């Protein structure tokens, strides 16, 4: 199904209710949309494709408006396969179309697909006339791949922003922000930022600054995932700015794993001590809480505390995985507290401490090692750790 956005500009994307894990990592209980846009003028352009599995549905959406063979330009803002998996399918139907993308994308295209269409390599802010509509290409390096760009229709003031300003969640025919439950969209956009964009926060900030500095009008922001923003396009820009900025929340998030409940005792003792000091605390048992939620809830926290039992002389696997995410996604630097339990030999706490110190995170003292259940001394250490955390959050 297609949807008119403004005269000559159409949504022709698809919903995905089939995929359970985005990137085979992140749960998407509400599905996800792959947004593609068709511009019909003297020349015809399609902006973005869709995941390969949905190529037939996407092409049917295009056929409702035009014969695909008449497409003049295939504009690829981003080469990730959920945007480009359908490229070989449309290339067969539009042999005279030209690929429009950055020089880095050109190399990726040859590596991924090697479609033999003529190509136009566009420089930053280069323009392309379709007739009455002028496209401008805004390079957006590392948002969130190195080849990424955004496409702007100058006359209609529509920004096709690629993965920037995206969100999880299928659209189910409700394509615009004034048609959809924005409470769900806010959470799914925040979760999308946390899981997909965290490592690129400085590039989000640079992209927002670049768009603002261009001084362009924004009647619509049309990302590659999630709704099109026409009621209040600045809403999603401001949210992305908030979620990717330098200022962290005055919150402590405790993330722990446990096998038999001993680590839980320490986590709840620390939580109680923090609350008595007036600190806002979030607590997650990583065995039962999805990693995407934990990342989303912790990435802006002023202090993170990790609690791990020792498992085969190493950290509890799910906590170790989360520590890897903190490091790999380049969480903004903030102090990290660590506690852990063991039955007969330690090792888990020491390895987490070393990993995060090597990644240049400050470790808050005291680091708490508990053999089985906490002793009186270790309860006092919880109190000291709580006081240190409260001091940091001031």
Structural write-up:
The protein has 394 residues and is of the alpha/beta class. It folds into 2 domains: 3-244, Metallo-beta-lactamase, Chain A (4-Layer Sandwich), CATH 3.60.15; 252-388, Flavodoxin domain (Rossmann fold, 3-Layer(aba) Sandwich). Helix content is 35%, strand content 25%. It contains 12 helices and 22 strands. Strands 1-2-7-8-9-10-11 form a 7-stranded mixed β-sheet. Strand 10 (98-101), helix 4 (103-112) and strand 11 form a beta-alpha-beta unit.
CATH topology of the largest domain: Metallo-beta-lactamase, Chain A
State the secondary-structure class: alpha/beta
- Give the percentage of residues in beta strands: 15-25%
Rough outline: elongated
Sheet of most strands: 7 strands, mixed
Keywords:
Metallo-beta-lactamase, Chain A, 394 residues, Rossmann fold, alpha/beta, seven-stranded mixed sheet, six-stranded mixed sheet, 12 helices
Structural topology:
Layout: E1 3-6, E2 9-11, E3 14-16, E4 21-22, E5 26-27, E6 32-34, E7 37-40, E8 44-47, H1 55-63, E9 73-75, H2 81-84, H3 87-93, E10 98-101, H4 103-112, E11 118-121, E12 127-129, E13 134-139, E14 149-153, E15 158-162, H5 182-197, H6 201-214, E16 220-223, H7 233-244, E17 249-256, H8 262-276, E18 280-285, H9 291-298, E19 301-311, E20 314-315, H10 317-328, E21 336-342, H11 348-358, E22 368-371, H12 376-393
Parallel strand pairs: 8-9, 9-10, 10-11, 15-16, 17-18, 17-19, 19-21, 21-22
Antiparallel strand pairs: 1-2, 2-7, 3-6, 4-5, 7-8, 12-13, 13-14, 14-15, 19-20
Helix pairs in contact: 5-7, 5-9, 6-7, 8-12
């Amino acid at each position: 199904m297609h949807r008119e956005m403004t005269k000559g500009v159409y949504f022709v994307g698809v919903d995905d209710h089939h995929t359970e894990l985005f990137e085979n990592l992140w749960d998407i209980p509400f599905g996800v949309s792959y947004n593609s846009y068709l511009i019909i003028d003297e020349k015809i352009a399609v902006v973005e494709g869709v995941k390969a599995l949905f190529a037939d549905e996407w092409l049917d959406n295009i056929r409702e408006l035009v014969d695909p063979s008449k497409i003049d330009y295939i504009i690829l803002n981003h080469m990730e396969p959920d945007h480009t998996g359908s490229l070989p399918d449309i290339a067969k139907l539009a042999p005279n179309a030209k690929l429009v993308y950055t020089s880095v994308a050109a190399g990726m295209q040859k590596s991924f697909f090697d479609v033999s269409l003529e190509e136009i390599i566009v420089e930053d802010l280069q323009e392309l006339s379709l007739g009455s509509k002028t496209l401008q290409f805004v390079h957006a390096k590392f948002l969130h791949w190195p080849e990424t760009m955004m496409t702007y229709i100058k006359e209609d003031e529509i920004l096709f922003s690629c993965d920037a300003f995206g969100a999880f969640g299928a659209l189910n025919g409700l394509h615009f922000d004034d048609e959809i439950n924005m409470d769900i969209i806010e959470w799914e956009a925040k979760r999308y930022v946390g899981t997909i964009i965290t490592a690129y926060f400085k590039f989000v900030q640079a992209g927002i600054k670049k768009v603002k500095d261009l001084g362009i009008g924004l009647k619509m922001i049309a990302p590659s995932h999630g709704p099109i923003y026409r009621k209040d396009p600045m809403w999603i820009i401001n949210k992305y700015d908030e979620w990717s900025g330098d200022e962290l929340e005055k919150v402590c998030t405790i993330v722990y794993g446990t096998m038999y409940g001993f680590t839980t005792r320490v986590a709840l003792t620390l939580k109680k001590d923090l609350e008595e000091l007036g600190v806002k605390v979030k607590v997650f048992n990583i065995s039962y809480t999805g990693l995407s939620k934990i990342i989303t809830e912790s990435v802006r926290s002023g202090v993170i505390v990790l609690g791990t039992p020792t498992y085969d002389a190493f950290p509890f696997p799910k906590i170790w995985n989360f520590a890897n995410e903190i490091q790999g996604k380049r969480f903004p630097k903030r102090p990290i507290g660590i506690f852990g339990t063991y039955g007969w030999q330690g090792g888990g706490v020491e390895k987490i401490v070393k990993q995060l110190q090597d990644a240049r995170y400050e470790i808050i003292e005291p680091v708490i090692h508990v053999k089985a259940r906490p002793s009186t001394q270790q309860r006092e250490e919880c109190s000291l750790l709580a006081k240190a955390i409260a001091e940091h959050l001031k």
